[in-house]
Amino acid sequence: MPLNKSLLTVQTGAAVSQGLNVVALVSVGMHPTSGRQRRAELDARAVEQGLRLIHTPATPQHSAHTLDVVHCGSTDTPALKQYAGMGLPHLTILEQPTQNDPLPSLIDYLQTTRADIVLAGMRAESGESSGMLPYLLANTLNMPIINSVAEIISVNQGQVECLQALPRGQRRKVMVNLPCVITVDMAAAAPRQSAFGPGQRASFTSVPVKETADTVRLSWTITPAKPRPKRMKTVKAKTAADRFKAATAKPEQQGGRVIAEESPDNMAHMLIDYLLSEKAISTANKQPN
């Protein structure tokens, strides 16, 4: 009996959907105490979410997902090996000076690669640290954006379902169409430990890009950050809970001095000395006698 070729075609001709193209954007972090370069905490959590997403086993209907970790800068940056040590075989480096604007380079690269999901931390640890880059990318590429994501739950039928972190530990499920931009919150899973060996063996693919100088940043004067002035709090008890808290709280200042009987000059000097002790003003603002 001859084979039914049409039936054979129907059985073996099932379409296999292409896997997701996931791109994680990483930057160079800075240790808060030593100031040394390291992997950025939020960007490392974004890479962790990407690794968990691509490790989803492939099925006959869906091929495996791919993860591309992209950095704008130099291949000689030592902190990039800490990302590679998380189990990445290679990283993509868009070669450009640090002071250049990374937005045009990322837009051209993402349009070329046609990324389905763009992962990034909510804010970098060095540079401008404004947190605006993911929003500018989403606006230019006409993609929806989900911020403060704690977990990527699933990706089905052209939609991604995420768990969004809200204030006071609350969570909310959000579903958005692909392609999209996702920014990862500190509530996301901690990044896996970086191994030294895989970080040294990983390859770095350098991609030449059109350099765009950040003229606004070149005009800035960058100085070390200083402690902010401490606010002097005034307790305004309106409820019973506020009155109880004010009554049981440990006072920040002990003692005091009444200066109503002093001369205006003495009162002014005492007030300036008090503001200096509270670090509300600096010695540079104190006028000479």
Automatic annotation (TrEMBL):
The keyword DNA-binding does not apply. Gene3D superfamilies: HUPs (3.40.50.620). Pfam families: ETF. Belongs to the ETF beta-subunit/FixA family. Residues 42-207 form the Electron transfer flavoprotein alpha/beta-subunit N-terminal domain. This is Electron transfer flavoprotein subunit beta. Keywords: Electron transport, Transport. It comes from the Bacteria. Coiled coil: none annotated. The keyword Transport applies.
